[in-house]
Design a protein that fits this description.
The protein is α/β, with parallel strands linked by helices. Helices cover about 40% and strands about 20% of the residues.
Length: about 400
């Protein structure tokens, strides 16, 4: 089916932060498969884990115990300060599980029509529930009727949450991204997540974080909420968790960890031995190589370099980021830069029409990081110069 407007490019193999197309041309990967390949391509530890497990056992189903799944649950709970895990196959499924958990939590409290507060410009997936939770009419159009049970507020707006708290007694949870990726690399104010945590505690709501894009070291901590010590009740993970192997997780702590019981929710493939071995290898590498700290240091290096080159330019609205999640907002649509970057041997992404999004692997070297900065800066400088001249 013609779901994708694919770029005219097919890759044959990769190594670290580099990809080679079928014609042998090399590209520096500044996107990581949209924040999936945090350890880069063909990482030896992940390759070894997948190869070993593929020769042992791929699938038995969740009718039986799965040792790798139990081990992964323990490891994830240890680094996330959570208590329990449900495994699935994607970020959308992890968020779907969180939404179902919140509704079940609400019904358990006697609320017949539980409501979840979600954010404008958010993105949570493309299932019917996560599509409804997503704050983007473009991806919702044509799929009506959407589901009920959601109320939307502006992102990074504590006052809006407080207004809902004063007027809606059916609210059971707040679902948000600690930094919006698809929405344009939107970084909330310092203290915002702590403020959400405070409001949730005061009203008995679950604080649910979509860390699908920000998690697993991307922000400079294991999880973005750890920058403010604003531990959620429920957290969705996927993307970089398996470094390319499909695996997602919905983690919970406190009362939320005890909402699901046998039969409440399930997944045929979720938490299978292969996916869990890959995720365990990812955790081992992130821990062993201190990649969270590395992402923080390298992200600041790249942010400083981009700001120095681009912030003074007319046509550049903002240069922002958190760890190795970076955004350059321009005043006009810049989607054409994606193909121009390909011509220059660089992979970038444009989201929200006018925001260049960079999500390089956590394992890149200083030199590779500088190459991305130089390459992107040169593209933007030429683009801005042409745009200004065109409108002169």
């Amino acid at each position: 089916m013609s779901n994708y407007a694919r770029l005219p490019l097919t890759f044959d193999h990769g190594q670290g932060a580099w990809l080679w197309d079928t014609q042998g041309k090399r590209y520096l990967d500044g996107v990581s498969g949209i924040a999936v390949c945090g350890l880069g391509h063909a990482h030896p530890a992940v390759t070894e884990a997948i190869t070993d497990q593929a020769g042992r056992l791929l699938h038995t189903s969740n009718l039986y115990g799965i040792a790798a799944q139990e081990n992964l649950a323990r490891r994830l709970c240890a680094v996330s300060e959570m208590e329990a895990a449900f495994f699935c196959n994607s970020g959308a499924e992890a968020n779907e599980a969180a939404i179902k958990l919140a509704r079940l939590y609400g019904h358990g409290r006697g609320i017949s029509s539980p409501t979840i507060i979600v954010m404008e410009n958010s993105f949570h997936g493309r299932t019917m529930a996560t599509l409804t939770a997503t704050g983007n009419r473009k991806v919702q159009a044509g799929f009506e009727p959407l589901l009920g049970g959601f109320t939307r507020v502006p992102y990074n707006d504590i006052a809006a949450l407080e207004t809902v708290a004063a007027n809606n007694r059916d609210v059971v949870a707040v679902l948000l991204e600690p930094a919006q990726g698809e929405g344009g690399v939107r970084i909330p104010d310092v203290g915002h997540l702590a403020g959400v945590r405070r409001i949730c505690d005061a009203n008995g709501w679950l604080m649910m974080l979509d860390e699908v894009q920000t998690g697993m070291g991307r922000s400079g901590q294991w999880f973005a909420w750890q920058h403010e010590d604003a531990r959620p009740d429920v957290m969705a993970l996927a993307k970089a968790l398996g470094n390319g192997v499909p695996v997602g997780a919905c983690l919970a702590q406190g009362e939320a960890a005890r909402v699901f019981g046998p039969g409440s929710h399930g997944s045929t493939f979720g938490g299978n031995p292969l996916a869990c071995r890959a995720a365990l290898a990812v955790i081992d590498v992130i821990e062993g190589e201190d990649l969270c700290e590395r992402a923080a240091i390298l992200g600041q290096r790249m942010l400083d370099g981009l700001r120095e080159r681009l912030a003074p330019l007319p046509g550049v609205t903002d240069v922002r980021g958190k760890g190795l999640m970076l955004g350059i907002e321009l005043q006009s649509d810049c989607t054409s830069l994606v193909t121009e970057a390909i011509d220059a041997g660089l992979l970038i992404n444009v989201t929200a029409g006018n925001v260049i999004r960079l999500l390089p692997p956590l394992i890149i070297s200083n030199e590779e990081a500088d190459l991305i900065v130089d390459g992107v800066a040169a593209l933007v400088e030429r683009f801005v110069e042409f745009t200004v001249a065109e409108h002169a």
